[in-house]
């Protein structure tokens, strides 16, 4: 992206995706169904469909998906993202700002020198 192009003009930005989703829903009169509760429910359903692709796989198999399986997983990941973006719009949450704030919180909870190589929760360290 060139320095003089704002993020909102970048076709790959979350803002542009949110606008596209709003337009998609408006054209179908689906906004009436997009309450935060309904969107959260739909997000969980899609996350379950994502997880279903990994059911019964070993750790190693999950790291090396065949091309067709990887494409199906990518579609489910996209569904999760789309509902998350719609939920952020419904609640007026800046996802990038919220994600960066959460990373900062996690950096405090899990200092690298104490958490390195451990999968224990911060309250267990």
Could you explain how this protein is built, in words?
The chain is mostly helical. Helices cover 64% and strands 0% of the residues. It has 6 helices and no strands. The chain has helices spanning 14-27, 36-52, 59-63, 67-91, 95-109, 112-115. The chain is globular, with a radius of gyration of 18 Å. The termini are far apart. The model is unreliable at 1-7 (pLDDT under 50).
SS strand fraction: under 5%
Q: What is the terminal separation in angstroms?
A: 42 Å
Q: What structural class do helix, strand and pairing data support?
A: mainly alpha
Q: Any idea what the shape is?
A: globular
DSSP strand tally: 0
- Averaged pLDDT, please? 92
Task: Give the quaternary arrangement of the chains.
Answer: single chain
Helix content: 55-70%
Pattern of helices and strands: HHHHHH
Largest sheet: number of strands, sense, barrel closure: none
- Helix count equals 6
Rg (CA only): 18 Å
Low-confidence stretches: 1-7
